[in-house]
Amino acid sequence: MLIWGWRTRIYVLAMTTFLCGRCGNPASHAVRKAVTKFTLFFIPLFPISVKYTAQCTFCGIENRIPKEDALRLQAQEEQNQAQQQGAPGYPPHPSQPQAASQPGHPSQPYGTPQPGFQQPQGFQQAPHPSQPQGLPQPGQPGQFPQQGR
């Protein structure tokens, strides 16, 4: 007995935003690659067909697109993600060095005044959130109530 058949695997290449041809909404589209492989005894051996599609997440229509367009959209999405990781206003990626040495970026953590900065009169800087608020500090005599009396 010989068992053969085919299996299709779908890979999401990118999620891009453009106008849908059916609903006209500027919606996200999933750019997908569907690979159908010939299987023998449930082992995928070689690809039979490869199809590229873009599916609208708003209305659900799925359109076939050429391979070149799918690869171009995938490259654009990867480029956009790389730009967003290094864009000002976003926190730096953990693998990137801190931007403290660049001009325009504070070299001190937020909440600490810059050198030469004077506080306005009557303004008190809030203590750090990790500092206890209104609790007695250990080691200071007379701060703790006497227990057992």
Summary?
This protein has 149 residues and is mainly beta.
Overall description:
With 149 residues, this protein is mostly beta strands. Helices cover 13% and strands 32% of the residues. The chain is built from one helix and four strands. The chain has a four-stranded antiparallel sheet with strand order 1-2-3-4. β1 (4-19) and β2 (26-40) form a beta hairpin. It is elongated and about 60 Å long. The model is unreliable at 99-108 (pLDDT under 50).
Key traits:
4-stranded antiparallel β-sheet, 1 helix
The DSSP helix count reads: 1
Order of H and E elements: EEEEH
Mean pLDDT: 75
What amount of the residues lies in strands?
25-35%
Could you tell me the radius of gyration in angstroms?
Answer: 30 Å
DSSP helix fraction = 10-25%
Structural class: mainly beta
**Multimeric state of these chains?**
single chain
Query: Uncertain runs with pLDDT below 50, 5 residues or more?
Result: 99-108
- How are the strands ordered across the major sheet? 1-2-3-4
Biggest sheet details? 4 strands, antiparallel
What is the number of strand segments? 4
Overall 3D shape: elongated
Termini separation: 91 Å
Ordered list of secondary-structure elements with their pairings:
Elements: E1 4-19, E2 26-40, E3 43-56, E4 62-64, H1 67-85
Antiparallel strand pairs: 1-2, 2-3, 3-4
